[in-house]
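Repro case for the chain-ordering regression, as requested:
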Amino acid sequence: MDRFWSLLFLAVPVLGLLIVLGAVFNVGLQNAWLPESIGPRTEGIDYLFNLFHIIVAVVFVGTGLLLAYSLFRFRATNRQVASYVHKSIWLELLWTIIPAGTLVFLAMHQLPYWQANKEDHRAFEPAGAGSSDLETPTVRVVAYQFGWRFIYPGLDGVFDTRDDVISENLLVLPSHEEIVAELRSLDVIHSFAINKLRLKQDIVPGLSPRIWFMITQNGDWEINCMELCGWGHFRMSARLRTVSPKDFEDWLMEIVQTRGY
Amino acid sequence: MKSADSQFENRESVVPQQPGFWRHYVFSTDHKVIGLQFLFSALIWLLMGGALAMAIRWQMAWPWTRIPIIGSWLFQSEGGQISPEFYTMLFTMHGTVMIFFVIIPLLLGAFGNYLIPLMIGARDMAFPKLNMLSYWLMWPAFISLLMAFFAPGYGPGAGWTAYPPLSTVWEASPGSGWAQTLWLISLLFVGVSSILGSINYIATILFLRAPGLDMLRLPMTIWGLLITAILQALALPVLTVALVMQLMDRHLGTGFFTPDNLIINNFETVGTVGQPLLWQHLFWFYSHPAVYIMILPIMGMVSDILCCFARKPLFGYRPMVYSMCAIAGMGFVVWGHHMFVSGMHPFMGTVFMISTMMIALPSSVKVFNWLATLWGGRIHFTTSMLFSISFISMFIIGGLSGIVMAANSIDEFVHDTYYIVAHFHYVLFGGTIMGVFSALYFWFPKMFGRMLNETAGKWHFLLTFVFLNGTFFPMHILGWRGFPRRMADPYFSGQFLDLLPLNRMITWCAFAMAAAQLIFIVNFFYSMFWGQRAGKNPWHANTLEWTVDSPPPHDNFQHIPTITRGPYEYSNPEHDEDYWPQADDSAGLEESINTPATKASER
Ligand code: HEM
Ligand SMILES: [Cu+2]
Ligand SMILES: [Cu+2]
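-- result from build under test --
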């Protein structure tokens, strides 16, 4: 019976690894790894995601095998007496320094990606404060229970004027252009998330965070709310349509003209 | 300092009075009775929380379909199916119940109470009346949470994190009415109860230790409980204050957490200048330390159990103690990792990323020390031991996914997906609950004087272990596809429809795991009355609780023992037996007749 139990714990790293490999290489499990990518933003994040999982998998398998092996080798039915050992400074140092080094490396290594994704554009000015020296966003996103409103500055390029263009639950954007979006919430906390860009930003009422991204494909994608916002949270999704920059201009013009400004 | 003995001198001379039924079983000040009261209340709530989880899984596998049998009775108006409001209640209550009514009361209330005086050689807690109060303060909490289920809107629906303004504005959600108020009141009572309890534990451990039991001879269980109690005493006041502030926002119009000019469901907030981020900071300032509150005691217990069944001293006692202290200390500076995408300044995201990465270090030191403890042992695969080993195995998985999420760029992607759900279930179910089972199989003989049945125990372990992984491992896959948590119908947008079969598989495993607990329930009650008699020290363990009768008499020790060695003297070559109890003299160490420890492994 003792052998059975050691084998059971051997199954953890072995099966775990097989499942993950199956997911990554689409063997047995279809579409079980990262979703497809539609913009350059995902490159760094996916790279980190893979790197972290490789390192973590090595530790997972290594410790799992060690555990199963000790259970097998030191089972009571196989041994007369346990060894009387209390400590070892060297081992202690070894397994403090190596993980510490790995963790410091991981922390430092991923720092620049966060800075590039979240800090570089001075994204987080509180509403009103000093917003004059921020560039005008391409679009203002207003979240409410349970839908999305997208406001474009219109032809004059200025928000809160008569020619603002409003679109409900459909965000049309030019592809291959960097988009700056300003997020606001009318009521409770929501979260603006595009899975295929690995993009997520909570929208806390009273703050107006900014995000920026570029999409390099034309097509229709999903925007989801990813922060619990009430009973209808699940149905708070919107369509994101990317078109060529020219089509985008045309789309805007058409709306402006039909309204007759 | 007065010795522990003298504090009890007057008590000893008094002829022990026979307390009546009420004083004995209900309003008792005996730490053992209070411990068992906590144990039974928490186990009942565990059933409740489990039932809520099953309903969640039902909705994930067969959204908007009639629940067989109980559906028509629960939701007559919706035709027997879960409604969105009901679903928000389900996960809100599941989280709340499991954290505040199950895990924390089990670890501190049940095991803390039962074990601390016994393991340090004291007759009771330092403040027995305070101890009783801390149990009875749980009842208002139980009652108000039960009432919240029946409040309009099906019950609170803002998640266990209760982010405002969803939670503070009555109009924001059907569950944000009286249900939310009752939820807040309930947690307020839990908070006060735990603060009282933790002060008591700290005082007891620091001042009532038997002579000779200096701090570095304490079993790891006691270290874990001591550090946890300190964490609670420091962190809980913050949560308590935040709860009061949220109550004031809701009833006195203060607006600490509610910004001006919001229009929520046709209601406009006027004249408030608060910020929801403030709540998030206060909440996580408590709730991150809370996740360590939910694991440090079990880390201690697992350390003791591993040594006992590996018949080997704990490897690296001091590093184990120091790493616990490090986890507790650093636990106060990482709360921001729950808020990476909240809108907090991104520079703070960097700071919290670094501190979070570093907190994985003491955890990994502990894992390696456990592995080294097993290495070279003589391992007896009792049920208790199997649960403890699985604790290590599962905690590794949870800790590693923690490191992945600590990278804030990655967390931006996986935040609020099932990756998080997988992470915390690996640490809280795979870790804490498996550890609790281990501790129950280990100390049940002490608590009730009889052994739990080993064969049933092993089936219970095997099925729980297999289906636990079947339930939670695939959640990583859901997570790295971006499958959202807390959504009544994640398939609504069509994006995740292909994940439905995987979700069904998870649900089947969850049902099977729940069913496996029946074995435990039957075993528990059967063994309580008809199990094999345990004797004083069935596992041949070293710590003090095994020197007294099972169950221990009212004041625990006939005379306070004197401690001559540490708790981990297993297989010491200078001693004939492979264990060497902490106290030599002692209230009778006659050999217990049966030795299930050795017998069980031969099976
Ligand atoms: C190795 C150490 C650990 C690290 C680095 C770590 C890291 C993290 C991070 C970064 C998050 C936030 C994820 C997100 O919401 O985006 C998180 C969530 C969580 N962790 Fe851990 N964790 C560790 C250990 C633990 C332990 C030991 C427990 C409990 C016993 C725990 C319980 C939780 C819970 C309950 C949540 C989710 C809270 C919620 O959003 O509802 N973690 N962890
Ligand atoms: Cu939402
Ligand atoms: Cu945390």
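Ordering looks correct now. Chain A has a mean pLDDT of 90.
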